[in-house]
Amino acid sequence: METSQTHSSESMSKDLSELLKEATKEVHERAENTPFMKNFQKGQVSLYEFKLVTASLYFIYSALEEEIERNKDNPVFSPVYFPAELHRKAALEKDLEYFYGSNWRKEIPCPEATQKYVERLHYVGKNHPELLVAHAYTRYLGDLSGGQVLKKIAQKALQLPSTGEGLAFFTFDGVSNATKFKQLYRSRMNALEMNVATKKRVLEEAKRAFLLNIQVFEALQELVSKGQENGHPVQPKAEIRTRSINKSYEHGPVHGKESERTNRRHTDTTSISPLVRWILAISFLATTVAVGLFAM
């Protein structure tokens, strides 16, 4: 009994970043075994699902960053407070306006699973702020690392503008060198004062964060499937809205490359089965988080 406790204490003496790697190893393997990487690289991703994913991420990051602001001076989190470098809410707002138009706040859905994730973030921030680092690390560094690979793939597959519209979420203007920044973040996180019991709780919270993400996308998959079963269209009237396209329509129909681009986006939405598309969407998040953790 004493030997087992000693071994546990010794293993927990490792840096928190290393412990997170070990604790999330199984999740990483699950992400690697999804069909996502091959399919996504072939461009098999729907713009409509991508938009719904972006909407849910907005609610998640809004809650996360609200709680981060609440605890920015709390010593259990303040060392890893990097709003200018990491915060994603403003970037997601830009993406949502690009995809949905100026009334995006009235159009985006917040499924029950997303709300559950939001509630967990608020609960942690208000009652157990020492666990907030698990959510911040899992999400931000996952997006900063794995997201950069997926950004290029999404831009090509969804035929998004080379100027970056619709992909602000993946653009970290405040981070000039991702490798050095991740090293800084990891060192700050490893320096957080935690006893063995707290470290264990942080590791469990990191696993919980990942599972909450998966539940969000499973719920979105069910939402789309139910819409189709009931005979309701799953794509909005305008698959994408941008100022440039809207201005073009004011003077008549769009011709040439812009028209062809819009038609191809519509084809992307309907050419792949809902199940395959949502496997891609779920795996998109899983891979982003997992790659981020293991790129550290």
Characterization of the model:
With 296 residues, the protein is mostly helical. Helix content is 71%, strand content 0%. The chain has 15 helices and no strands. It is globular. The two termini are 34 Å apart.
Q: What is the H/E string?
A: HHHHHHHHHHHHHHH
Mean pLDDT: 77
Class by SSE composition: mainly alpha
Shape: globular
**What portion of residues is helical?**
over 70%
Helix tally equals 15
Beta-strand percentage?
under 5%
Q: Span from first to last CA?
A: 34 Å
Stretches with pLDDT under 50, minimum 5 residues: 231-272, 290-295
Question: Quick gist of this model?
Answer:
The chain is mainly alpha-helical. It is 71% helix and 0% strand.
Task: Please name the defining characteristics of this protein.
mainly alpha, 296 residues
Describe how the helices and strands are arranged.
Elements (H helix, E strand, L loop, with lengths): L1 H10 L4 H8 L1 H8 L3 H6 L5 H24 L12 H4 L2 H12 L3 H4 L4 H16 L4 H26 L20 H13 L5 H34 L13 H8 L5 H15 L3 H21 L2
Helix pairs in contact: 2-12, 3-15, 5-7, 5-9, 9-12, 10-12, 10-15, 12-15
